[in-house]
């Protein structure tokens, strides 16, 4: 195990500004999605973390899809799964769209438009080496119109103070060293 987080340099100049802005949803096209109340956190070695992936991207390149930067910790995942399981209204909408209730709940809680992914696959990975992340509360995602299922509406996350997201800078460079996949599969199996 590394004495310092594998992505330590992402939290100091010159990279800090770039990755903090990415966590806040800023890019060359402006601000879209991202998080508010962004703070650096040390992820816990031995803890499981959860990533919702687009099913088609996962099918074509599972490692690349799994190594994306946006994750949830166990407590947040459990809360979203619990709400998805208890909400009859959410279940009706999800079934009408032909997707798992948990995928639909993730889209609502994390503000993930269909044009960004369907949240149809979940990757559970155990942290095996030190890595840091930005944690924050989701912001509104605006659409580019790439997927008709979005219906032209913006995605504002459900306002729940117990729900946060994790953005892990440069995870694609360290994924195999930082994480061990524990489970992966369709959201309907979780």
Structural descriptors:
about 190 residues; seven-stranded antiparallel β-sheet; alpha+beta; single chain; two-stranded antiparallel ribbon
Shape: globular
Q: Determine the mean pLDDT.
A: 91
| Beta-strand proportion | 15-25%
Low-confidence stretches: none
Could you give the count of β-strands?
9
Q: How would you sum up the major sheet?
A: 7 strands, antiparallel
Helix fraction by DSSP (H/I, runs of at least 4): 25-40%
What is the CA-CA span between the terminal residues? 30 Å
Total of helices: 7
Strand order of the largest sheet: 3-7-8-5-4-6-9
Backbone structural class:
alpha+beta
SSE succession: HEEEEHHEHHHEEEHE
Q: How would you characterize this protein structure?
A:
The chain has 190 residues and is an alpha+beta fold. 32% of the residues lie in helices and 25% in strands. It has a seven-stranded antiparallel β-sheet with strand order 3-7-8-5-4-6-9. The chain has a two-stranded antiparallel ribbon with strand order 1-2. Strand 1 and strand 2 form a beta hairpin. Helix 4 crosses helix 6. The radius of gyration is 16 Å and the shape is globular. The model has no long low-confidence stretch (mean pLDDT 91).
Quick overview:
With 190 residues, the protein is an alpha+beta fold. It has helices at residues 15-23, 55-60, 62-66, 74-86, 88-96, 101-110, 171-178, and strands at residues 26-27, 30-31, 35-42, 48-53, 70-73, 121-127, 132-138, 165-167, 179-186.
């Amino acid at each position: 195990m590394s004495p310092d987080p594998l992505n330590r340099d992402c939290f100091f100049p010159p990279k800090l500004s770039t990755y903090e802005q990415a966590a806040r949803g800023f890019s060359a096209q402006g601000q879209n999605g991202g998080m508010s109340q962004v703070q650096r956190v040390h992820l816990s070695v031995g803890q499981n973390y959860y990533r919702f992936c687009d099913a088609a991207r996962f099918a074509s390149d599972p490692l690349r899809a799994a190594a994306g930067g946006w994750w949830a910790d166990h407590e947040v995942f459990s809360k979203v799964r619990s709400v998805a399981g208890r909400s009859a209204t959410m279940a009706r909408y999800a079934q009408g769209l032909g997707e798992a209730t948990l995928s639909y709940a993730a889209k609502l809680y994390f503000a993930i438009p269909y044009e960004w992914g369907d949240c149809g696959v979940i990757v559970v990975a155990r942290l095996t080496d030190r890595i840091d992340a930005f944690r924050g509360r989701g912001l509104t995602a605006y659409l580019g119109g790439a997927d008709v299922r979005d219906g032209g509406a913006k995605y504002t996350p459900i306002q729940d103070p117990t729900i946060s997201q994790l953005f892990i800078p440069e995870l694609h460079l360290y994924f195999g060293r930082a994480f061990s996949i524990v489970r992966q599969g369709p959201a309907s199996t979780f």
